[in-house]
Amino acid sequence: METTSATEQFTKSFKGDLITPEEQGYDEARQLWNGLYDKYPAAIARCRKAEDVVTAVNFVRENNMIFSVKGGGHDYAGNSVCDDGLVIDLSPMNKVEIDASNKKAYVQAGAKVGEFDSAAQIHGLATPTGTVSTIGIGGLALGGGSGYLSLRFGLTLDNILSVEIVTADGKIITAREKENEDLFWAIRGGGGNFGIVTSFTFRLHEVGPEVLSFQAYFPYEDSREILQFYRKFMDNAPEELGCYAFFLNVPPIDPFPKEFHGKTTCALIACYTGDLQKGKEELKALENFGKPFLKFLQPMEYTALQKSFDAGMPKGLRWYTKAHYLSEISDFTLETLTDFTENLPGDHTMVYLEPVGGAVAKPSSSATAFPHRNAAYSLHIFPGWNDGAEDAKIIDWAKKFHKKVEAESTGGVYVNLLAHDEKERVRAAYGENYERLKKLKKKWDPKNLFRMNHNIEPE
Ligand SMILES: Cc1cc2nc3c(=O)[nH]c(=O)nc-3n(C[C@H](O)[C@H](O)[C@H](O)COP(=O)(O)OP(=O)(O)OC[C@H]3O[C@@H](n4cnc5c(N)ncnc54)[C@H](O)[C@@H]3O)c2cc1C
Asked: 19, 22, 126, 363: which could form a disulfide with 207 (CB 3.0–4.6 Å)?
């Protein structure tokens, strides 16, 4: 950071760790999960408590400085690290406390999904989160948060009881149903637009510790039939079931048979979180369907299941994202999916359908700032590759694929799945709640201090 009296003052008053480019650890601290971005901030302010966040917010506001907010660093669009400015890094704030008797969790905003899951599971409890344990709770919960438990218990944001938040004027306040209710509405889907959340209180539910995990991998040639089966099966699937249809390239590891290594497969991946015996009955149709080359159905610890995708999505690879909400898997969508996935570009590329519905669909579209309650599926085109020389080719594939399905989409998109080059889709991500969000932005952040995100401009 350029040395001025203001930065000197900040350096003295900031009680967390300030990491500048000269210091060891700078390169690790500036890295995002997505290796597509390589940014060089002036400094990284690692906060240990809410007061450190206040000091950092006051400093960037008073000095009109570019800044970003980083929790788990998994933002697909790369917004949580900035060039030349200050990164307000919440990662040291990762305390999780469970109040088992009241089924509540107090979670600092820098905690990761895995840290939250593990602490809650000691008591046989959980809140719906994402399906990768390294994602940050902050970004996940403020945008939505969907995973295996969502049809049963809603999105992560549906389970927020209150937040502690640092506002644009540097105040620490609480937002919940009966206190700053308009802000409470806005942060549940409005992303990081309204302030920096320093902690969450979540509602917990009884889950596990063992759940029923099902995975079946089929030869690519069967994919049309699998998707036809999947859409029919999901029409009557119980809310205890989270079931995804995936296209991916088979990793060259056991237990995948050697002859399928590197080939594209269509897979059904599910988790049943209700009574295990009942689950075996409910999953019979899945278990007996088709001729997978690899299949298992087994009880598994929920925390282990929540880590099972981690290895396939390593930090530092190049990743791009394109998504749509769909109201159905139409024949056209089904054909397009199979056409575009025949030769998946990129070793780590995935394309998947995630069901919406169930408890996600129960609140109205305006109950929180998250509007996409009536969609049936979220389609995510999610290429992952190593070589920068392939960027243009792979991103072009994702865009063409996405464009082709567009006519069949609801027009909406999950804000947490937007790419860096999709500014024109930000409005679609906030959907029917966009105008109200703009009004609330004017109230809570009139100068658009918090703008390094999928930005809502003040009315
Ligand atoms: C491998 C992978 C798997 C994923 N799986 C799922 C999934 O199963 N389900 C799902 O719903 N999503 C999933 N996502 C998307 C995920 O929800 C978003 O990427 C989310 O933003 C990640 O949060 P983070 O804290 O790690 O991100 P960061 O990069 O740290 O933050 C992202 C943005 O969120 C805002 N932000 C973060 N923390 C705060 C805070 N405390 N206060 C204010 N603003 C804040 C900032 O604007 C920041 O730019 C996945 C993403 C990846 C990369």
From this structure: 126
